[in-house]
Amino acid sequence: PKKRARLDVVAEAPALRGDSAPKDGERPTGKTCKHEVAMPPGMGEADEGMLSLTYDASRPPARTYAFELDPFQKAAVAAIEREESVLVSAHTSAGKTVCAEYAIAVSLRDKQRVIYTSPIKALSNQKYRELTETFGDVGLMTGDYTINVDASCLVMTTEILRSMLYRGSEVMREVKWVVFDEVHYMRDKERGVVWEEVMILLPHSVRYVFLSATVPNALQFAEWIAQLHSQPCHVVYTEYRPTPLQHYLFGAGSDGFHLVVDEKSSFKPAAFDKAATSIKARTRPKDDRGGKGGGGRGGGGRGDRR
Questions:
Q1: One GO molecular-function annotation for this sequence (predicted)?
Q2: Which of 130, 152, 155, 232 has the highest local Cβ count within 10 Å?
Q3: Which SS3 state, helix, strand or coil, does residue 89 take?
Q4: In this structure, are residues 234 and 86 in contact, taking their beta carbons and an 8 Å threshold?
């Protein structure tokens, strides 16, 4: 499939701006993202509308926010408003849930149904509670609970969705969007086949929001979706990490934690050397001299006495 790339995407539709939006002509700084489009065979290259993520902003937004969205969130929201699938790849706590919520809001606005899938029951239960507080019209389907199955938004595990597709459930005729949370689980050797089967069995009319941690082959995955369902698939990727990481070194028997890489990704050689020295000092083998001697000639044992 052909593809085109556009770097540093910032969707500037006024409807998406929050109260803290920059003034006209200003751009958010520091939080840029990478945007690519995977096109299915036979559709040619992505047009300028896809690359610039323009859409009809005359309609009221499905959901507004009291804060300024990050560029990757704006890009994903614009793709959803264009009714095109999108893979959102970002670090943990970066705000991928905003993209899923917007797809749900679009479905409710357009009187359509949406399915939110997660890899485990506990996460499904958590998302059910959170989405119920936000949207109200939400149901839950897991192996343990079935709640409000007629809701516009259904939360379920991926295995439940596969079972529905196997049975030819009537619900699927009303579904416009499917959100796959933690889609990087597809790489799991045992359960990854479930995600693959579901994506193959879903009808071409469905649009997707894939939420993933940062993965190296995001565009390759989008190309597969584009070819599989004959539809464009956007890839929105950001390296921005809202929660800085600090790396500590701790060895068994050492004298505590040592900060070796700070939140700015700066390596601390002095701290590393201190940690290594501490670990070596506590793990050095004990001196064997002075131990019990064996018998025999020169051994000092009782058998050597004359």
A1: hydrolase activity
A2: 155
A3: strand
A4: yes
Euclidean distance between CA atoms 75 and 54, whole angstroms: 10
Which of 106, 116, 163, 109 lies closest to 139 in space, CA to CA? 116
Domain ranges of the chain: 3-237, 247-283
- DSSP, collapsed to helix, strand or coil, labels residue 247 as strand
Average model confidence (pLDDT) across the chain:
81
| 15-73 residue pLDDT tens | 333 333 333 333 333 467 889 999 999 888 888 888 888 888 788 899 988 888 989 99
Helix residue spans in the chain (DSSP H): 48-52, 71-81, 97-109, 121-135, 158-167, 192-201, 218-229, 269-283
Tokens 């597809």 — which residue? 186
SS3 174: helix
